[in-house]
Amino acid sequence: AAYHVKEPRSNPYIFFKEEEVTGGWDRDLAAYRKRHQR
């Protein structure tokens, strides 16, 4: 789930914590989807 930040909606990093994004977008995207499966 996204948390509220003062950033544009177009910013993809809005759904990620900064620590998670630092390692690399593709890997973190996969990890995010694993944690948030629907």
UniProtKB/TrEMBL annotation:
Gene Ontology molecular function terms on file: 4 iron, 4 sulfur cluster binding; metal ion binding
InterPro entries: NO2/SO3_Rdtase_4Fe4S_sf (IPR045854)
Stored Gene3D superfamilies: Sulfite Reductase Hemoprotein, domain 1
Originating species: uncultured Desulfovibrionaceae bacterium
Keyword rRNA-binding: no
Record's keyword terms, sorted: 4Fe-4S, Iron, Iron-sulfur, Metal-binding
Name of the protein this chain belongs to: Dissimilatory sulfite reductase
Gene that this sequence comes from: dsrA
